[in-house]
Write the structure tokens for this entry.
Amino acid sequence: MSPNPNGAPDTSVAQPPDEGRLTRQIVLLSLAAFASAVSARISDPLLPQLSLSFAISTGEAAHAVSAFALAYGLLQLCYGPLGDRYGKYRIITFATLASLAGALGSALAASFQWLVAARLLSGATAAALIPLSMAWIADKVPYERRQHVLAYFLTGQILGVIGGQMIGGIFADLTGWRGAFWCQLAIYLVIGSLLARELRGTPTIDHHPDTGQPRPGFVAQLRTILADGWSRLILASVCAEGALLFGALAFIPAHLHQRYGISLSLAGTAIGMFGIGGLGYTLFAKPFVQTLGEKRLAGGGGLFLGVAFLLLLWADHWLWVLPAGSCAGFGYYMMHNTLQINATQMAPQARGTAVSLFASCFFFGQSLGVGFASLVIDRYGVAAVFASSALLLPLIGLFFARQLGHRHNRPEGYARNM
């Protein structure tokens, strides 16, 4: 068994019999994360075109973004228990194939209300992919390896963030916004087929050792997680992070297009630097984790995010988005990866439920952030949103880092959650 940082054994982890097979399965989960991230970010560069096509404001067009995030967040409360009960890899596979419906509905939308409904469906099905993948990896990988393995897995998500922005912008310029959703459908079809093949070929893929203890019901699991103050702090922090970061990030392509007159494809590619910055963290996650530790990663990540939004706020040329986006991506994954690793230990015996609740709070925060930011932008302009993120994101990172320091100094540490 593998000890956590405070020495308590993590009895929830199954030792993988085949490291090569485990690596292949994690790569496939990373591809699923790619598809989910593409789906989440593909509509960001489309907002100006959706605004023109349906004769609505940019703030109203952003409902296509917030609808996805809202459904994504709410459905976590279903997928977590389903994954714990029926198998996380199995539910991920079924949800990837079910995501074809939302992509098809978006591509065929005859009205903006239809598009919003299709985006709701897309969020509802994509909701299973990243959180359950994280929980499955946490079931298989010991704690001391888990943070950098999760970071490598998130490479797929980062490439999806880049790809979603680029696909949305390129297709908006070349074929119109419908082409972006047809591309999304093709991505889900290919990756869903690969996951289904792996599931059929590995009947024991969701095997997890029986601890001999009865599994509590969903309400009891939620009550246990929410009764713990540390769990509540993690959930509140990730909710605020999602609201302040992605509430602002969703409007950057439209801001670049409207203020500087650059094409939507170039705007989407430029903000793709967010993903490049994220790759800079995940590719070197292991030495970062070993050298800096969780506390410095959380605090430093928040500071990087603050600097990124200050650059956007003071920029007098669109090229400033390149270093700003890279800085934001690097800082985000420093802080978010630290929140994630702590979330995997909130309830090890019901990890699917715990990590899905974490993701639910994250995307609920995103939905609130995009909705609130759209109101602020329509009334005060985008600078007010960037300034709020520049001020508050560093405070969140530094506060969580301080709480980590207090917690790691306690003798019981994570042990009380085991």
